[in-house]
Specification:
- The chain is α+β, with helices and mostly antiparallel strands.
- It has 14 helices and nine strands.
- The protein folds into three domains: 221 residues, no CATH class; 125 residues, no CATH class; 156 residues, 2-Layer Sandwich (Heat Shock Protein 90), CATH 3.30.565.10.
- It starts with 6 loop residues before the first helix and ends in a 10-residue tail after the last strand.
């Protein structure tokens, strides 16, 4: 697994990984004790004694449950107490857990229900959120079924002679589950890593804000403040306004992003549960075939065998399963792809701040920002892109440029929503880019009715807003102009056709200040 970039983020990530490992190890310690007790009790219930003529003795299954089961439980439980945070403990636990499944299968005489313990065990092992922990248990399962399928098939499949492909089929289903569990572990790990990065960044920003507040308090204690200190205070206040605007945006976006991710996640879960439930029907068909092909079974004609299989196919509605299960899996993949798209857009949008400009793909940044804030505009308007292909990478402060685009798109959606209030229709937002000499021009246009002429000159003033109390601070456009004009040497202009709509025009130079674009 790749690690978080900053030392503090790595420290947070490692601490959380350790906490997950310790917590999961302790849960498995309880599970191991329970499984040991269940194995012994099960063996005593199924076959407590074996008979040799008139004499009886303890059944070998009871002895196996006590000795082998005790050994399988003892080592993991011991490690979870003496080394709960050791990385190797989770691998020992994983192997012991699937070996318990093999013991269950043996004691029950290869019953199909006992095999479910292995699949459930893999899901439990995925609680570690580390795909590597699944590798050893998977190998143990495959080797165990292959070896016992050849030398002792009755203990694993419940038959005296089993086809070699049965072990391969079982391994295939185990790998099928591993793919989804492994992917889930990777996604979970990435999410935890991103959270650690954001938490470390937030701690850093909080420390910086506290430091700045302390400095300002010291300055206010002085009787006289020089002009240089006043300029520094102004810059510091502007920085705090930018931070406040970002925090405001994060708060507004959080609910929307949660909704955007929850919707596909919900139908992915529904589809997976559907496949899980209907898989039992598919297994019953396989069992029907196996029963009819069993040479040791009751003597039946081929017509009778075919009729029995056809009856089973009709009973489980095979045609329905054949058509619906692939569709459910395809929908699940689409949902996962949608979630991945949102996560990638969030990663691009939350570009770490930098004090120097770096060349960036503005079209990509615009698309990512629009995706992140889609829950703010998609109910009010249809958004269209008209992005020029020939735009070169442009030097900019990418994080602050993203914030400007976010402000303009959200303002456009708010304007359309206000205009169409009480009407069941959507407006239109167009985001376009084009190359204009030594400048890149970005336009955000809406059909929200425009801005009255009487207030147009004030829209870029700090704290000026036409929104109702609680819906805006009036900082967005002021900060946006400051970012574009003062930090990028560009322009931010307003074009209004009253009653029709508003267009904000951003112009960014292709060369940094003091440089020219290469011919």
């Amino acid at each position: 697994m790749s690690q978080a970039s900053s030392p503090r983020a790595r420290e947070i990530e490692h601490a959380r990984d350790l906490a997950v490992r310790v917590r999961t190890n302790r849960l498995f310690a309880i599970l191991m004790a329970f499984q040991f007790a269940a194995t012994v009790i099960g063996a005593l219930i199924i076959a407590p004694n074996t008979w040799a003529g008139a004499e009886s003795s303890i059944h070998v299954h009871v002895i196996a449950a006590i000795t082998i089961g005790g050994a399988l439980a003892a080592l993991p439980i011991t490690l979870t107490f003496i080394a709960p945070g050791w990385y190797g403990t989770q691998h020992v636990v994983g192997v012991a857990q699937v070996l318990f499944g093999s013991l269950f299968i043996h004691i029950t005489g290869g019953r199909i229900e006992a095999h479910f313990h292995l699949f459930g065990s893999l899901a439990f092992i995925a609680f570690y959120r580390d795909w590597r922990t699944l590798v050893a248990p998977t190998l143990v399962i495959a080797i165990d079924h292959f070896a016992r399928g050849i030398f002792w098939p009755e203990s694993v499949f419940g038959v005296i002679a089993a086809a070699p492909w049965r072990a391969l089929e079982h391994a295939g289903w185990v790998i099928f589950e591993d793919v989804f569990l492994g992917y889930s572990c990777v996604v979970s790990s990435r999410s935890a890593r991103a959270i650690a990065e954001h938490e470390a960044e937030l701690e850093s920003k909080n420390a910086e804000i506290e430091r700045q507040v302390d400095q300002r308090t010291e300055h206010l204690a002085d009787a006289l403040i020089s002009l240089e200190n006043e300029i520094e205070d102004r810059r510091r206040i502007e920085s705090q306004l930018v931070q406040a605007q970002k925090l405001e945006s994060i708060g507004q976006l959080a609910a929307g992003i949660a909704h955007e991710i929850n919707t596909p996640a919900q139908y992915v879960g529904d589809n997976v549960r559907f496949v899980r439930d209907e898989f039992v029907g598919l297994l019953s068909i396989v069992d029907a075939y196996a029963t009819q092909l069993d040479e040791n079974g009751p003597a039946m004609s081929w017509d009778e065998r075919r009729s029995a299989i056809e009856a089973k196919l009709g009973e489980v509605d095979y045609d329905f399963l054949r058509s619906e299960i692939p569709s459910a899996l395809e929908q699940s993949l689409e949902g996962i792809e949608r979630i991945s798209h949102i996560v990638i857009a969030m990663k691009d949008f939350s570009h770490p701040g930098s004090s120097t400009k770096e060349a960036a793909d503005l079209n990509k940044a615009i698309r990512s920002t629009v995706t992140v804030c889609s829950n703010r505009w998609k109910y009010a308007a249809d958004l269209e892109f008209d992005l020029a292909d020939a735009i070169p990478d442009t030097p900019c402060l990418l994080g602050e440029f993203n914030q400007v685009i976010l402000n303009l798109v959200v303002n456009a959606a708010d304007a359309i929503e206000t205009k169409n209030q009480g009407q069941e229709k959507k407006g239109r937002i167009v985001v376009s880019t084009r190359l204009d000499g030594e400048f890149v021009e970005v336009r955000v246009a809406d059909d929200g009715g425009g801005i009255p002429e009487s207030i147009r000159e004030r829209v870029f003033d700090p704290f000026f807003t036409t929104k109702e109390v609680g819906k805006g601070t009036g900082q967005g456009l002021a900060i946006s102009r400051s970012v574009i004009v003062e930090k990028h040497g560009g322009t931010l202009d307003l074009l209004v056709e009253e009653g029709v709509g508003t267009t904000f025009v951003i112009r960014l130079p292709l060369a940094k200040q003091g440089e020219r674009v290469a011919a």
